[in-house]
Design goal:
The chain is an alpha+beta fold and about 450 residues long. The chain has 6 helices and 36 strands. The longest helix has 28 residues, at about 1-30. It starts with a helix and ends in a 6-residue tail after the last strand.
Length: about 450
């Protein structure tokens, strides 16, 4: 009896050791031991009331402006509302001012409030027209036809005139002073009625505008901007450069003279000195812009996150069998050698690459946060996660950090001068006269390990 018990004990012990070995291998392969020691998170005081803002911009004193009237101070770690100033989003110039260039794309006759009011007036007057007429008319034809009826409602006509003034002014850039809150329109106008363009500061202090959304014919309809233009702060004027025949989903500054523009699977280079484009080249090979997230460029290496189910294409592109295929995969594309390297996977389940946020840290590593970690038993509802991790391109290892204060989905972060990351949520969108404002809430700071003031 004793011998039988000892034999059973040995079998049970062997079984336990085998299970522990399997679990250890599984956890190593899934980066389960990659945790801790990579920093922590702290809440930011913003009055606990969400506020609407255009895209935030970092200014010279290390503060972050949330246009039109909120500002984050890294010394106090607080966001305050500044009621006596008006800020604009854009790019920081050499002299500390902010350059903003966001044209209103819709002609006032296309803006919903005015258009809805006009339709009612036309209906009340028994006036009709065909779609063919509407789409073949230019803006002068439309004004000639619609304005006599619009003038029948003085209040709506006044609103139209104000919108038209804003529409025309928006073709000028705006230069604002974050210290005083004062702003002025540029002398010159943009050559392309566009917004959401990529903006980069050149070594000579000029600003290059690449891509974005542009107005279609006469401000009726929206298209994709392919043109490049350069703004000179000294003269206040814009110079039209080139039409690259490519609308960039991404644009990166490689050096002062060379820019990389990516659309779908293809890219081209633009040279500011020669004002020329390279030949178009395909490099993502059906990975697709919607299943990938290009998070940054360092030393002519592009860091690309791909959805987990793209593992077969990743194997084809990087000539490597992916591991941890339930997690987002990392690819590194070397621009100089035109080759891919497999960068392993992330440490935590985050859903699709569009679900989580990322920020390129000052030391070249990448902070990844939020996304979707799990769903209910029916697969009907996804749950955001509060986990975060640091991906190190040198080792290909992603290590979990401490958990965030909030679970996040499609949220954003901005890297501060001192190396911390200000993270914020985007729950709702508000549109006003062609401008887009997003509701900001759930602010917190990522504090790197070893950080001290």
């Amino acid at each position: 009896m004793k011998i039988q018990w000892l034999q059973n004990k040995r079998v049970l012990k062997s079984l336990i050791l085998f299970i522990l070995l399997v679990l250890t291998v599984f956890m190593i392969n899934h980066n389960a031991f990659a945790f801790g020691g990579e920093g922590h998170f702290e809440k930011v005081d913003y009055g606990n009331k969400p506020f609407y803002s255009a895209e935030p911009v970092k200014i010279k004193n290390g503060k972050v402006i949330f246009p039109p009237n909120h500002i984050f101070d890294p010394k106090t770690n607080k966001v305050t509302e500044v009621k006596d100033k008006t800020f604009f989003d854009g790019i920081l110039l050499e002299d500390g001012r902010i350059f903003h260039a966001e044209a209103v794309l819709e002609h006032p006759l296309e803006q919903s409030r005015i258009k809805d009011g006009l339709y009612k007036i036309l209906k009340d007057n028994g006036v009709s027209y065909t779609k063919e007429q509407y789409y073949t008319w230019d803006v002068k034809d439309k004004e000639k036809f619609f304005l006599p009826y619009l003038k029948k409602n003085p209040e709506l006509y006044k609103e139209y005139k104000e919108a038209l003034d804003s529409y025309e002014k928006s073709m000028h850039g705006i230069i604002s002073d974050p210290e005083t809150g004062r702003f002025e329109y540029t002398k010159g106008k943009m050559n392309v009625r566009r917004n959401d363009a990529y903006k980069f500061l050149l070594d000579d202090g000029k600003v290059i505008l690449i891509g974005g959304r542009k107005a279609a014919k006469d401000g009726f309809g929206v298209g994709s901007a392919q043109q490049i233009e350069i703004f000179n702060p000294k003269t206040g004027k814009f110079s039209l450069m080139q039409d690259g025949n490519l609308y960039p989903h991404y644009a990166f500054k490689i050096n002062n003279d060379k820019f990389m523009l990516i659309h779908g699977d293809d890219y081209i280079f633009y040279n500011t000195n020669s004002n020329n484009f390279s030949n178009k080249k395909s490099f993502l090979k059906d990975l697709g812009s919607h299943q990938t997230k290009i998070v940054g460029l360092t030393n002519e290496n592009l860091f690309i996150f791909a959805d987990p189910y793209k593992r077969n294409l990743i194997k084809q592109i990087a000539n490597t069998t992916p591991v941890n295929t339930s997690l987002a995969q990392v690819l590194i594309y070397d621009i100089k050698t035109d080759s891919f390297k497999y960068g392993r996977s992330l440490a935590h389940k985050r859903g699709y690459v569009s679900d989580f946020g990322s920020a390129m840290l000052n030391d070249g590593r990448i902070l990844i946060f939020g996304g979707v970690s799990d769903s209910d038993i029916f697969g009907m509802h996804n749950y955001p996660t509060n986990s975060a991790e640091i991906y190190d391109p040198k080792t290909g290892i992603s290590k979990q950090t401490g958990n965030m204060k909030y679970a996040r989905f499609k949220d954003k972060g901005i890297v501060l001068d001192d190396g911390r990351v200000l993270i914020f949520g985007y729950p709702n969108i508000y549109r006003d006269k062609g401008s887009i404002y997003r509701e900001i809430d759930k602010l917190e700071l990522y504090i790197p390990q070893g950080y001290s003031r």
